[in-house]
Amino acid sequence: MTSEGWGTPPVEPISQHYIVCGGNALAHRLILELVEHYEVPVVVLVADRTRDHAPQIEQLAGVAAVVEYASITDEALRAVSIGTARGLALVEGSDQENIHAALSAQNHNPDIRIVFRMFNQRLGENIERLLRNGAALSGSATAAPAFAAAALGRPNSVEIEGRYLHIAFDEAITSDRVCVVADQIDRRDLSKIRLLPAQQGDSAEFVRLASEFGDDGPIRPGGVRREAAPVASVATAATAAPAASADPADPVGPANPDPTETPADPEAEAPGQEPEEEPTGTAALQVLRIEPREPIGWRRRLRWRVLDTMRFFTSARMRLVLLTALAAVLMSFGVLWYLNRNFGWTVYISLLDLAGAAQPDQLSDIASGSGTGGIWQRVAQVVITICGITFAPVATAIAVEVLGSGRRGQPRNPGAGTRDHVIVVGLGNVGTRVATQLHDLGVPVVCMERDPQARGVAAVRALGIPVVMGDGPFEEQLRRARLKHSRALVAVSGDDATNLEAALEARHGNPEVRVVVRLFDDDFAGHFYKTLDNAASRSVSYLAAPAFAAALMGREVRGTLSVFRHVLLIAELAVEAGSGLIGLNRHDLEDEGGVRVIAVRFAPGSQLQWGLPDRTRRLVPGDRIVVAATRSGLARLNTVTGVS
Questions:
Q1: What is the pTM of this model?
Q2: pLDDT at position 345 over 90
């Protein structure tokens, strides 16, 4: 391939389109978001049409063209009509390459919206200031919290002004939940999950009453007063759905009918036959005042650190010698104390003996009877002095080894004292983020990496995290990583087969370990959930792509929450002059499903109000709303607001 490039450039002049530069998994998911949920034309610029996800991208309906160039040059940008494009997404390449491409694109089209992937978030924030309309996002930073939370078996959270939103399931749902976000959860068939179904959850009863009574209040024509249905309990509200719609075109239909009612289909439940129970569940959005921390006491962490340090610095044979010498020193110390009955003097003379600086009794002193302590004291001092000869070279060897390995840049191996830790397989961008986040929570971490040049090796070594290096069999690598004493394994390399292999080997070596696997393919993930218990699957591109798509449309996604393989977006929208949000109320925003308004700030500088109890209050310029939305729901809001 030459620098001139080739491919399928637009045959006819194209404008008002979006350009995605990259052929990786994130680019694939991002293009799907744009063409399926936002329904905008997309032109793709790839380095090689035969590699990675480029062949699948070419088959996507809605992709206007796929153009191949080895690098993002000015010529490549002109080939994809950068001058008439509405947005540009740079989701592949190094930070330096993406910065250069973003600045070049702005020179060609000063008004274009630019979203670029950056691992160095601090640098990305500085580059944003150089762009008129740009945003820097990190796919690994977006996805890493979900992997870390899954490894610890607790929900991921998104912080909104001091409160932490998270997903709770079934029995963990409390009465102060924000809203029900999913129902019909079946681990055996994850496609049944309904995420934010229309008129579902907390707002269902309000919407039904508003539709039934209109604007005249709760008095029906004819003077008959109709009482609102009582608020259901947490378990009932989480699992019950509104009555079936009378409209046959209603896409929702009966959600979870009352199990006490007779099924409409006579074949659904034959007389005398037990109905088959479906393991369905519910998920709800809840708020925590403080971010959940990992409950590991400082005493346990100190004990782990002491054991790990001692066993890291010494071999098993050396530890046996040192423990024997230490026992001899303590026994000799006890003899000296017994003979002299002076603790301070005993400590003093013992330390001198260890250092080889004690003054022994002279023969003249013994003959004259002026010796100090007799035969047993002399024996004790000899023992302490000999043991001191053992300790001194060991301490010197430890110091030399520590200094030498630090200067050579060798990664630290896990010690025999490592317990209750999380093993992170793969130190790419995501693995580095996950290991760092777990370490910040106080959780012991051990990393595994086959490539000694991986960028994450130096980063985690700087934090003192042990790293198992090598390209041997996973069984041997996991043994060195102390698998039998670990609590979880997170496999986040860039290859699905490698991640699955690591998970299966881990489960074979430790049937109780929790496994979290990075998988791109949804069908693969479905089989994974059916096969393994105490396991979770996450997709980096699936978690990050909605945030990139929303940013490309000018929306701010504060975070993503996982409901198994489904994604719930927490986004903040500003009501600006000319926005389609002006004049809408909570009913209008939530009517079609896929969106829940969870907080509102009615004017600049005012306090954020959670829940928005006034469902008829209409939005005005200057308001800001925080919503929980599905990917299609957020895309619908983007269409309503008329973003150009």
A1: 0.66
A2: no
